[in-house]
């Protein structure tokens, strides 16, 4: 019989912290660019009758001899109707040598944390080093963890928050004490920001690139499905970077008529020092994050190995 380690959400949280996730995500971007991992085609489909989006992302970490997948998605009414997270996901890890399953783990915390880490890594390489002002578009879980990721990299003095969920935005601004400023509209938030982060599930643009000041950087996080669109590129950007062109051009911000010839780089080319990140304080830059499976796999592999070493979780026999 094959032994499989089961890890619930609390056990994953016990092991995985944002600082470590930032390190792992940067590493996985570089490894993918160096052909040390393989990403398989993603599945992302609408489930109309339940107002959900279901997806499967899978990949192979060659050095770790581990293959895995994450299945789940976004059910927009979960919180309102059932008091459950809108994002739901689970991962299964396999031994690449034998195909046997080795670990089943809750992936909600992994998804939240690796996405925050992606934003932090992109900003590290593409935003101005002395960035002090951030505009966050959205007020949900990902908005908050994206800010947490940036606080690991920058000395943030002001945070402008704009959200269509005005009550949630106001509450968050109150929590931010002296840093938080509630913006009446998206433009008011964006025009002042060194770093702009979009974290909504919107299908219509909320931010225009013509609003960005010189030297601004945008982390476009929310668009991860066909049709989603948070950023209207009505003014050219000096450097547009994505995590994976094959995904960004189908389900990210770059699906809306953006030609590959205008793409500056995939992020792994920058973390792997093949191309330079920000080169001047005047450049306007943007990172389109659709979330790639090697992020999940790299983080999950770390969680699995640490859990085994420390005796965390429950083992079952299949």
Provide a descriptive summary of the structure in words.
The model has no long low-confidence stretch (mean pLDDT 94). It is built from 10 helices and 18 strands. Strand 9, helix 6 and strand 10 (180-182) form a beta-alpha-beta unit. Strands 1, 2, 3, 4, 5, 6, 7 and 18 form an 8-stranded mixed sheet that branches. The chain folds into 2 domains: 3-110 and 294-317, ornithine cyclodeaminase, domain 1 (2-Layer Sandwich); 126-291, Rossmann fold (3-Layer(aba) Sandwich). Helix 2 packs across helix 4 and helix 4 crosses helix 5. The protein has 318 residues and is of the alpha/beta class. It has helices spanning 9-15, 18-33, 78-82, 108-126, 141-151, 166-175, 186-190, 245-251, 267-271, 293-310, and strands at 3-7, 37-39, 43-47, 52-61, 66-75, 87-95, 101-106, 133-137, 158-162, 180-182, 195-198, 207-208, 217-220, 231-232, 239-242, 265-266, 285-288, 314-317. Helix content is 32%, strand content 27%.
Largest sheet: 8 strands, mixed
Order of helices and strands: EHHEEEEHEEHEHEHEHEEEEEHEHEHE
Spell out the CATH superfamily of the largest domain: NAD(P)-binding Rossmann-like Domain
Q: Fill in the CATH topology of the largest domain.
A: Rossmann fold
């Amino acid at each position: 019989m094959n032994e499989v380690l089961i890890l619930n959400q609390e056990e994953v949280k016990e092991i995985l912290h944002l600082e470590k996730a930032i390190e792992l995500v940067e590493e996985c971007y570089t490894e993918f660019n160096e052909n040390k991992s393989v990403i398989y085609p993603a599945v992302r489909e609408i489930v109309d009758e339940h107002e959900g989006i279901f997806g499967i992302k899978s990949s192979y970490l060659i050095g770790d001899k581990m293959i895995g997948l994450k299945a789940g998605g976004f059910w927009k009414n979960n919180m309102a109707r059932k008091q459950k997270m809108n994002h739901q996901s689970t991962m299964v890890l396999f031994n690449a040598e034998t195909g046997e399953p080795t670990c089943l783990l809750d992936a909600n915390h992994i998804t939240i944390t690796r996405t925050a880490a992606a934003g932090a890594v992109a900003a590290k390489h593409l935003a101005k080093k002395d960035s002090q002002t951030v505009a966050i578009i959205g007020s949900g879980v990902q908005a908050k963890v994206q800010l947490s990721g940036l606080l690991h990299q920058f000395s943030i003095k002001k945070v402008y928050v704009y959200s269509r969920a005005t009550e949630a935005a106001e509450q968050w601004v109150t929590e931010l004490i002296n840093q938080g400023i509630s913006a009446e509209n998206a433009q008011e938030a964006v025009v002042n920001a060194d770093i702009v982060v979009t974290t909504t599930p919107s299908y219509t643009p909320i931010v225009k690139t013509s609003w960005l000041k010189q030297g601004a950087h945008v982390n476009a996080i929310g668009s991860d499905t066909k049709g989603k669109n948070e950023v209207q590129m009505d003014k050219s950007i000096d450097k547009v970077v994505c995590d994976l062109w094959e995904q960004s051009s189908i389900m990210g911000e770059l699906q809306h008529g953006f030609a590959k010839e205008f793409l500056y780089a995939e992020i792994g080319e920058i973390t792997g020092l093949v191309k330079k990140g920000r080169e001047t304080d005047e450049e306007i830059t943007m990172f389109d994050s659709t979330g790639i499976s090697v992020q999940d796999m790299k983080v999950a592999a770390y969680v699995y190995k640490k859990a085994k070493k420390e005796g965390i979780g429950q083992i079952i026999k299949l």
